[in-house]
Amino acid sequence: MKNKILGFLSAVMLLGMVGCTPAKETTETKTETKTETASGETVKVGVSIYKFDDNFMTLYRNEIESYFKSLNDGKTYEVTIQDGKNDQAEQSNQIDNFIQQGYDVLIINLVQSTSAATVIDKCASANIPCIFINREPEEADMSLYDGKDYEGKYTYVGADARQSGKFQGEIIASLENKGDLNGDGKLQYVMVVGDPENVDAKYRTEFSISQYKEVSGLDVEKLDEQRGDWDQAKGQEIVANALSKYGEKVEVVFSNNDSMALGASQAITAAGRTVGKDIYLVGVDALEEAKQFIKDGTMTGTVLNDHVGQSHTAVDAAVKAVNGEKLEKYYWVDYVKITPENVAEFLK
Ligand code: GAL
After folding, report:
1. Pairing status of strand 302-304 against strand 336-338
2. pLDDT digits over 298-311, tens only?
3. Which runs of consecutive H residues, i.e. helices, occur in 71-188?
4. Order of strands, edge to edge, in the sheet holding 154-158?
5. Whose Cα sits closest to atom 11 in ligand 1?
6. Ligand 1 centroid – CA 73 distance (Å)
7. Three-state secondary structure call for residue 218
8. How does pLDDT run across 225-256, given as a tens digit for each residue?
């Protein structure tokens, strides 16, 4: 009863506030599941995404929201999702506010993974569990509270980026000609990098090539490597430039993600080249459009970055933490190779 009265009073106060403040920016989404319980227990979940303007993270955050809605465990989850706008200072403010406002658990997709230690310390002082997603913190940071009270109250949920890089290398190495279109025993390639500060980008760049060499037994020649910030327009520009500079020498374009690969595909078409015939193109994420391109033959392959598995694991970890259960330090979700042979299974 007391809860109900308090709830009513705060609702009235909130309404009052809304009445006199300007409309909120649309960079925040708030969801409340309507599974009101006898006790009316409400769990406040604060989520900050490194930036909303990212195709893969948009799928991921939408899935976080809908999975929370689907939970039927008798609690009300009030989920606030904020846009970090690719600005660590902005995101740190959001985290400070979540903590000050007494949120019960945080799900954080860091702008800079090097900020993990600060965030962990803040959450530890406030004793609020924290689930890191997508951008893996340094191992040393993940071990900061080993043997201390806050151990088991923070975790990283992600996929091992080394695996996605290896899968990209294998996709090219298992082509009949191993991607070596000109038959000179070397793979001439262009690498489109996401964001070099991000381990996903680092590992995909490194392991796609090392695994290619290992599986194919061939050597490689890097023609170009440029940073495209996971962005389609930048991917297009990078590959257009590389194609005009190196022309038919380019045998393969490795892209750290599908958004940039979609841009690369536009550049390839514009340059009059044909994927599967005189060039190959591989990405990561398995965006719907990329899968369609694989089906149509305009992309050679991609690697599923399982946003459904990852978001559900992250939400499950958040719920566990709120219920006082101890978390593992890491939860890993597998990548899956997608090529023309199996793409039909993954298309919606
Ligand atoms: C990667 C994903 C990219 C981008 C990045 C953001 O895992 O492949 O498309 O979303 O995360 O950190």
Report:
1. antiparallel
2. 999 999 999 999 99
3. 88-100, 116-126, 139-142, 161-173
4. 28-32, 76-83, 42-49, 105-108, 130-133, 154-158, 330-332
5. 134
6. 31
7. coil
8. 999 999 999 999 999 999 999 999 999 999 99
